[in-house]
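Issue: ligand-bound run for iron/sulfur cluster - logging full I/O for the record.

Environment: standard queue, default settings, no custom constraints.

Inputs:
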Amino acid sequence: MYLPFSKHLHIVTSFFNIYFRKLAPRGELPAMDLEREDATFGLRTLQDLGWKDLLDGFTCTECGRCQEACPAWATGKPLNPKTFIMGVRDMAHEAEAGVPLIPNGAAVRETYGLDDGIRPDLLAKPIVDTAIPYDAVWDCVTCGACVEACPVLIEHVDKIVGLRRNLVLEESRFPQELTAAMRGMEAAGNPWGLPRSTRTDWTRGLPFEVPTVAELATAGRLDEIEVLYWVGCAAAFDERNRKVARAFATCLDAAGVRFAILGQEESCTGDPARRMGNDYVYQILASGNVETLNRYGMGERTIVTACPHCFNVIGNEYGQLGGAFEIVHHSVYLDRLLSSGRLRLAADGVPARSVTYHDPCYLTRYNGIQAEPRDALASAPGVALVEMDRHGRNTFCCGAGGGRMWMEETRGTRINHERTREALSTGADTVAVACPYCMIMLKDGLADAGRGPGTDDPVSIADIAELLAESAVPAKRRLPVLQQG
Ligand code: SF4
Ligand code: SF4
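Outputs:
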């Protein structure tokens, strides 16, 4: 009798919360129907929350594991996932809104003339600035560390993005730095707002052709494509990441993989817009990409990408818009090429390195990929791996997820500085990454720490593809050796 009225209520609710946990992939945000005329976009008040969101609140054990894992909280920002969930619960208690936990509770009460004692004024109170401060909503890097740490499987990220959706789509209230990124995605198909015509500039000077799917289709050679390389905006437009694209293409070419790119027909996947809360822009971009990929029959081919964000959104979220694609992260694809013997590496002249690998949240935590990048790295000549304290599913975000790449980090200390400090503490001379955002954030972190290229005691940063490309043996050069053997 005591339990339902005490702080121990979670003992009862935990079973139900775990049984009714989210079964969709963790990286899939809830779908949004933008066409519904009566739609309220995103989450504003308790009435916009589903029964499972309220059950989450009543299930929190207040253990603080999410708070401990949160990179925003760890770097002194106002976001605290624990107090957010407790805040939702307190609001529900205050408004006596626990009753909606019963499916069709309102109808049941009406039928039986029950007095529910609900306070409509409190039900209409905004969640933002009651359960969570406005700034904290934007501090979240959507890294998923809170969800991973929670023993009763509470979903924090879907709710935070739900609040962003309401702020962006209903109230136009969001950090002003995001305006340029949103406009860039809408007008130019990339968050940097750079011209589409420069999307394939990274291929210039490569000693082999990188055909576009359109060129092959015109020549009636679509069937030749073994894999589609989804380049992603960061690798197409960011100078440092262009080198990664070139290295990955070099590995594919060396392994004799017949690959093509979409070139100017590729647009931003919409991931940054979606995580910023702008599902309208996301759906425009994503629908366009789904249409392009389907037009070329890419549902029957393998897509490979070096960006975990593109990987997650195409693989886990495009299904909501009618796209069913098999997508593989480049670290996994490279590992397969190495295991099958298609990609071979030569040790001559490659220096010995001590390498620490930074797991990207959207690859490891959201999609469970942690062995293949390490196996691929371990195959590289001269590489000795050393782990950071927080690695694998316990990785610590680089600070760029959830659209934070395009926001100023004005509160607390910088997340990329914290992660860089951890990487440097391993004593490794190379930080290996498998994500273009991580590349940018940790490169800046090394430079800020005075350990980047050009300093007295430099620590280098490299994508897995770059570490393999420097020792990849081109397929053509291998043939005579094979014949002799
Ligand atoms: S997703 Fe990451 S940044 Fe956001 S609340 Fe959870 S742990 Fe904190
Ligand atoms: S980890 Fe889960 S149960 Fe623990 S405080 Fe956070 S939300 Fe509550």
